[in-house]
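Wait, mind explaining this?

_____
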Amino acid sequence: MAVRRKKASAKSKAKIVAAKPKIAMRKAALVAPKKKSRAVEKKAKPKKIVSKRKKPAPIVAPYMQQPKAMAKATAAALAPTQLQPEVGTRSAQAHENELPSAYGKTKIVLLVRDPWWLYSYWEVTQGKKKDLERVMAVSWGEIKKYLRVYDVTDVDFNGKNANSFFDIEISDQADNWYINVGKPDRSWCVDLGAKDRDGNFYLIARSNCVKTPRNSASCILDEEWMIDEDAFRKMYAISGGFGIGASSPAGMRMGFPSGGLTSPTKKRNK
């Protein structure tokens, strides 16, 4: 038994001695510093040290410096303000400048647009509408309204002595109308009225008289503005009337064409 124990103890001692180098190697690996790879060493760069400098304060001249109280008052005065309108109120100025939708008077007005067109607008009061309903025995919405356009050129118009007239049927809700007369340099007057089933015309309102302008130069010559033939030819040449370049100094030196030109002026007495 004693011999067996000696052999076992000898074997265990041999195992311990064989294991010691391995344990020593493990401890050395743990204590030794780890080596970085070359790739990591290449990527690592030293950080640049940037010095943070404060911006210099703006230099203000002594005469530009203000006390704090004055600076606050100036900032408050320059600050934008928003005006809020009062609820349920309107400014008196806006109310005065607004045109009314009606004036409470039955009236028709006639205006000239150009040599061929007129423009008319009108207003009919409720009282006038009721009077017309009573006379025609028809409601206002069922009455057919018309504009009767009179040619009153060179006539002291009294409603029956016009040179000619024509009728234009208008819609029930209309209160203005453009009228194509097609005749320049004529005088016109317009009646606003209604017609019954028999064609009788009932007058509601009569407009003012207007005259359309001419669509060409006037043939009336005024002696006050007449010029002699030579002056007219010079003015005509300067305006380029004799052709391209005739109004230039070179064209003027070439002279005026003889004959073929007469002016609406009086000839100078020689």
About this structure: The beta strands are 107-112, 117-123, 144-151, 164-170, 176-180, 187-195, 201-206, 210-211. Residues 244-254, 256-270 have pLDDT under 50 and may be disordered. The chain is about 30% helix and 20% strand. The two ends are 180 Å apart (CA to CA).
